[in-house]
Amino acid sequence: MVTLHLTDKQFRRLLDMAYIGNWILNSNRGDDRFTDYDDVEEELFSQCEKHGMEELSEVRHGRVRPSRAFRHGGIHEAILEYEDDVFFDILAEELARRDMNFAEIDSSNYEELETRMGEYIAEFEANGVENITVEK
């Protein structure tokens, strides 16, 4: 058993980190979840009452889970912001690599890749996906 000495603020941040991590690992896995991460999340959220944060956890289906108040308290906005950033980064790299005929990236063309990605990122920052078209 490990004992941690955290302030209430640190404990609250740990709840956020555990939830975000478990969300990233398990949110799209359906029934093939990494249940050991669910178990860790449950253990952390079961400690909420001891920290005066009982509103952040609830029992659902016999397990301690993040409460509706926790889930709807802004944590998903942070996840969405991260997902948007990752989406645009991946899209910029894929488009830049496409423009370079999917050449193997090495020291001779890395700067070109970065330049092309920067141009796409600038476009996405200015216009989002407004100017993206797909020909069928």
Q: What sort of overall outline do the alpha carbons produce when their principal axes are compared?
A: elongated
Poorly predicted regions are none
How much is the average pLDDT?
A: 96
Secondary-structure element sequence? HHEEHH
Domain count: 2
Strand order of the largest sheet: 1-2
SS element count, helices: 4
The radius of gyration is 21 Å
Number of strands: 2
Q: Find the structural class using helix and strand composition.
A: mainly alpha
Distance between the termini: 58 Å
| DSSP strand content | 5-15%
Describe the biggest sheet?
2 strands, antiparallel
Describe the overall structure.
- The mean pLDDT is 96.
- It is built from four helices and two strands; from the N terminus they run H-H-E-E-H-H.
- Strands 1-2 form a two-stranded antiparallel sheet.
- The chain is 59% helix and 6% strand.
- The chain has 136 residues and is mostly helical.
Label this structure with key terms.
two-stranded antiparallel sheet, 2 strands, elongated
Provide a quick synopsis of the model.
The protein is mainly alpha-helical. It has helices at residues 8-26, 35-45, 68-99, 110-127; strands at residues 57-60, 63-66. It folds into two domains: 8-66, no CATH class; 76-127.
